[in-house]
Amino acid sequence: MPKASVSKTSAAPELPEPDNYESALQELEGLVARIESGQLPLGDMLAAYQRGAVLLAFCRGKLEAVQDQIKVLDEGQLKPWASEE
To answer: Which region is the signal sequence (predicted)?
Structure first.
């Protein structure tokens, strides 16, 4: 039985990685607003969702890297910074 081929006609071109956290966050917020508006065609909505997932992973990675670098001096010892919630 032959395998069904998957069409890649709806695949969006690869977009460049954001320059920094702020530009990624700004783009992500714009995508969320467009998706929530309900005015995007289905194909565009899927592409926006996929790009949003890439941007979200980028932002999370940047935040984790910064958190790993933040240290608090406590009684002469450097300790990893932990947020208080």
So the answer is: none
Cβ-proximal residues to 64 (8 Å cutoff; 6+ apart), any chain: none
| pTM as predicted | 0.66
Output the CA–CA distances (angstroms, integers) from residue 3 to 6, 21, 75, in the order listed.
Answer: 9, 42, 65
Quickly count: other Cβ atoms within 10 Å of residue 49's Cβ: 13
d(CA 11, CA 72): 46
Residue with tokens 């997932």: 53
Alpha-carbon distance 20 to 59, whole Å?
A: 9
Tens digits of pLDDT across the chain (85 residues): 555 444 444 455 678 889 999 999 999 999 999 999 999 999 999 999 999 999 999 999 999 888 777 755 455 566 666 655 4
What are the tokens at 73? 């001096």
